[in-house]
Structures are given as structure tokens and as C-alpha cells.
């Protein structure tokens, strides 16, 4: 009954919430009226551009809107000189204080892809897929904040998204980093969106804690009952764990005999540095081969450095995790939350992915453990991977009321 009430309230608020569908400029084109400078940066209008410059002796400096916003879309263009770094932050509550990247939300802007937080990253929460921002031209951006659902586009490509409730309302800011660092902005405009109600828990909290659904073990600790082998890798049970071994030339998967759609899954893995694995979910039950076109790969592979496309905890081709969370000397725990088009991953207690996948992947499918070749090595070297404590809570046919 409580969930029905929440849902009724949520729908009512959506039906009666008002928004302003028109876009409005964030600068009036004449002066900086409507903006403040807290003392760590200077700004000026120059040729219809807003130039934000950090003051000497400071790590960074920013300017702030006088107005506060909760649900909105903002878009415009930015220009970063070579080696410069900037940021756009939102929902900054001045009474809470602190750095905007930790008390509000900051979108990182940088020309350097070889770093933990490339352009479009929601700092500390959602790492962007790298889309080059060119330091010889203007680059477009768009940010959407609807309730706890946050999304970022760079040059018309969506690069990051997440659900988070750190802050629900506050000011918008433009930041420049480095000693006298400078960032330019133009064509900044904003559109207010309807009010959103947080009708229930986040997906990970609900799927972890709901008493609904059937919880079962996917591995009995002594046999491969309930699984089938696809490909050339060897799969054995060794010391109470599943061992996948590619051998000199093989690779392959261990696949559940049952298909799953909406579920919460938890497991542990152990993998040496450079070795390659993954857990594919929702593999098309009509397919004969396992590919990125007919399944979602939650990756287990981190060869080191910031340039690797999809480190452990990523959904390959969709969502990019922060690197360096895996311990190659010990067991690592992964949690997968899958409901409809929404997939969320946790690695060793840290959220690494929170993404809405294309609708084609909102379907039942098999779960596939991978033993893969070492893609970062020219000779595609062999790999060994171990899995244990595999548990799944099947939530098929059970509604989710959240967000």
C-alpha cells in the first residue's frame, strides 16, 4: 500500500508541476548582472564571450549565479587554451560551503585525456567516455539535471550519467583552474524543467534490501551444475571457486542455463594484473555467439593507466568506470543491479556505473562469465580468472517504485 501511495503522489506532482519551456540566456550580453565573484576569480565580457580567469596564488576560482536552480537543462560552448582546465558546477549551496566538486556537482573540462576525470566527467561520480575537446576551437556542452538523474553531453555525444542525491538545488558556477588559468564561454542558456519528486529509494538500495524476489546461489561450490560452456576456454572447480583458463590460444564463456531480466547479482572475482575477464548479462537467448551487440559486458579488465577505454566496473561501449579500484592480490566484490533499461554496478563498495542502456537490452538474457585474451598485449596473451560466492535475486515480474 505504501508503494501505491508513493506512486500516486509522484504522478500527481508530475501532472501539476510547471516548467518554463523557453530557453533563457545566463548572461544579458551587456554586463555580469546576475552573477557574483566570491573573490578567487575575475570575469569579464569580451566580444560576446565570458572570460573567467583564476587569480594568482589560487588552485582555482569561480563565478556564481545569484539565482538557484533545481531541475534544468543548460547548454552552451566553452574554449580551453592548451593545457587549460575548467569546470561547470551546479546545485551549489553557498550555506553548505566547501568545494563544489564535493558538495554540489561539477562537470570537468580538460584537453588532456590521460587523466582520471576527462571532459564531461561528473567529478567523483560518473567518469566520461572520452570525446576530444579541441583546444583550437569552441566545443559544445549540455547538462541535464532532472531530480536525481544527471546527464552530460560533449559535442553532441552523451558522455556520462548517474543518479545521485547529494544536492537538489543551488547555484550554477563557472570555474577556471591553475595559476591564472583562463576559460572562455559563450551562448550559455538555460531551460527550467518540471519539479521532480523522489518517490522512493535509488535502484541499488531497493534491489539490495527488498524482501521480494527469489534469491538463489548460482554456484554450489563443487560443480558447474546450472551452467554450460561456450567457446574454447577450460572451466573447472578449484578450491571452492570457478576457474576459467583460456590456455595458449582459447577463450570462452561459462553461461547460465536460465535467463534473467531484472535482478540483483553479487559475486567475487580474482584476476592477476593484465588478465582479461568480464560478466556479460542479458545475452540474447536466440543468439549463437556472444557479442557486444547482443549482450552487455560488465568489464573485468584494467591494464593500468588512464587511457584504457573501459576499466573494471564499466559497461563496455556504454559507461566508463574510474580506474584503479581493483585489488589484483585479493578477491574483489561486484554487485550488478539490473531493472528495465537501468544498470548500476558497484565494485568493492564503490559505485562505478549508473546507466540507462538502449531499449534493445531491456529483455531477459543469459549471464555469461568470460575468460578472455589480454587485449592490451600485442600477442593477446592468455588469462586465468576465478569466481566465487555468486548469488542472484531474481526480480522478474516485480515492480520497482523509485527515484
Approximate shape: elongated
**What is the share of helical residues?**
under 10%
Count of DSSP H/I helices: 3
Structural class: mainly beta
Q: Report low-confidence residues grouped into runs of 5 or more.
A: 1-18
Major β-sheet, in short? 8 strands, antiparallel
Quote the distance from N terminus to C terminus.
Answer: 18 Å
Strand content: 35-45%
**What is the number of beta strands?**
26
Note the run of SSEs as H and E. Answer: HEEEEEEEHEEEEEEHEEEEEEEEEEEEE
Overall mean pLDDT: 90
Cα Rg: 23 Å
Topology summary:
Blueprint: H1 2-16, E1 20-25, E2 35-36, E3 41-46, E4 49-54, E5 60-65, E6 72-79, E7 85-92, H2 100-103, E8 105-110, E9 139-146, E10 149-154, E11 157-163, E12 171-177, E13 182-192, H3 203-209, E14 214-217, E15 227-231, E16 234-238, E17 241-245, E18 252-256, E19 263-271, E20 276-283, E21 296-300, E22 332-339, E23 342-347, E24 350-356, E25 366-372, E26 384-394
Antiparallel strand pairs: 1-13, 2-5, 3-4, 4-13, 5-12, 6-9, 6-13, 7-8, 7-12, 9-10, 10-11, 14-26, 15-18, 16-17, 17-26, 18-25, 19-22, 19-26, 20-21, 20-25, 22-23, 23-24
Concise synopsis of the structure shown:
With 403 residues, the protein is mainly beta. The protein is 6% helix and 43% strand.
List keywords for this structure.
single chain; 403 residues; mainly beta; 8-stranded antiparallel β-sheet; 3 helices; 26 strands; disordered N terminus
3D architecture notes:
- Helices cover 6% and strands 43% of the residues.
- It is built from three helices and 26 strands.
- With 403 residues, the chain is mainly beta.
- The two termini are 18 Å apart.
